Amino acid sequence: MSVVGGRVSAARRVSQTPNQALQWTRPKRRATELGRSAREGDRVLKRMALLAMLAAVLCAGCGGNSAPTNLPPNPTLSPNAPQDQPVDAKGKAQAEEYRAAIAPYVEKGRKTYPEAKKRYLAGLPAGHHFFAVANLRDGSGTSEQVFIAVAEIKGDRITGRIASDIIGVKGFKNGDPYSFPESELVDWLITHLDGSEEGNVVGKFLDEWQKTHPRK
Question: Where are the domains of the chain?
Answer without folding.
Answer: 64-212
